[in-house]
Amino acid sequence: MALHARGALTDAELEGLHAAAFDHEPGTTPWGRRLTDHSLTWVTARHDGRLVGFVNVVGDGGVHAILLDTCVAPDVQGRGVGRALVAAAVEQARAAGCHWVHADYEPHLVAFYEDACGLRPTAAGLVRLT
Question: Model-level pTM greater than 0.70?
Answer without folding.
Answer: yes
